[in-house]
Amino acid sequence: MKCPSPPPLPPRAVGAAVLALLLACQAKVSGGRSGGGGGGGTGAGEFDGQRAFGYLERQMRFGPRIPGMPAHDSAGYWMLAQLRARADTVIVQEIAHKTKSGQVLHLRNFFARFRPQAAERVLFLAHWDTRPHADQSPNLGQRRLPVPGANDGASGVAVLLGVADALNAKPPPPTLGVDLLFVDGEDYGDSWADPYAEGSDVLIGSRWFAAHLPVGYPPLYAVLFDMVGDKDLNIYYESNSQAFAPEVVDRVWRCKGSSPTSSTTTWRYRKAASTPSTS
């Protein structure tokens, strides 16, 4: 659905919003250790937009990251190596999902943790798989073709890898933990499928994570990044987030320093656990 356009975001605003949110959390706590790695031409702890865009391009060189295909496996191993070089702890959540057609998909969520010992935590997430078919394309001839996934898939991952660079260079204070979750199998099923139906083939990794949370883990809040790479990017208030976590939405936009117009368009991610979440 085409939405009315509010004023476009400035370049790198998405990554800057993430780090502004982190800095707002850090403002209550002084200190923090210095770390190495993740420079890329900017100061420690800054989001490097150019480097993040390189992460998007690297994903695209694998081809469509469709579960069950070699490109999906290769991209997953590459992402895992990037995260292990930056995060304090990386947990691989392996998922075997039987689709409605009887195929068994072998999926992986990647859960990268900074300051894993901290009790107070925030969660940022994105999906890394791509759709098998472009079933919403206005071009009928393309609807059986795979989605390349530059915007829908690679862009959210690129932002979070850029955040991982910044957190590696300048970790959060000792009392605050940050988690980056890369979910798999988000977009495998039909675009119109009910994500809550038994055996649904969409939101697979998100639903698995919500059903297998670490002991004592609800984060303070979660922010989902999806389809944030459009060249004419406009970001709106998201209606589900407004309904379930209005205080998180307000905090994100206050940090960003902008007020988007309201939109009735909603993403299909839903709050599956008792965590205030926004997208």
UniProtKB/TrEMBL annotation:
One of its GO terms (molecular function) is zinc ion binding. It comes from the Bacteria. InterPro entries: Peptidase_M28, QC/QCL. Coiled coil: none annotated. Transmembrane segments: none annotated. Keywords: Acyltransferase, Transferase. Residues 109-243 form the Peptidase M28 domain. This is M28 family peptidase.
